[in-house]
Design goal:
143 residues; two-stranded antiparallel sheet; mainly alpha; 2 domains; 3% strand; 7 helices
């Protein structure tokens, strides 16, 4: 049985963009037919994938083509630096929004979803998991 390959942490950055290295990994896994089944429903259309695409102003197909045509992350990074228009403030706002997603106690539905995901994954007791980025890192064995 082949062990799953997990993409990098959503916290990692490239070209000033949080999440971009993870998204590149997910695209490469998708192109190789190795993206885990539970990641496929959200791929490029929901969650942090869709949020990054929207914040960066890039179409999913375009980003997939860029990764498909590149051999290295450096080539993707160069493309992003030239083609993705977003100020440092835009990148910071995206990072903060992502790192806070699920943390705000006032967002009761989102907090309930995070708790459900934690419980379903056998991590309901983990108080160190306070947002969805924490959950992803814990679920993939980094936290």
């Amino acid at each position: 049985m082949e062990l799953p390959l997990f993409p990098r942490s959503p916290r990692e950055e490239m070209a000033g963009w949080c999440y971009l290295p993870r998204f590149i990994d997910k695209i490469r896994l998708h192109l190789a037919g190795r993206l885990p089944a539970d990641y496929q429903p959200n791929f490029c259309v929901k969650g942090f994938d869709a949020a990054w695409l929207e914040a960066a102003g890039v179409a999913a197909g375009q980003m997939i083509d860029v990764v498909r045509q590149s051999l290295t992350d450096g080539q993707v990074c160069d493309w992003v630096r030239v083609n993705v228009k977003g100020s440092a403030a835009d990148r910071t706002a995206f990072r903060e929004k992502m790192l806070q997603h699920g943390r705000d106690a006032a967002q009761t539905e989102l907090r309930a979803l995070l708790q459900k995901r934690k419980t379903d994954a056998g991590m309901g007791h983990r108080d160190d998991i306070q947002c969805f980025v924490d959950f992803i890192d814990a679920d993939e064995g980094r936290l």
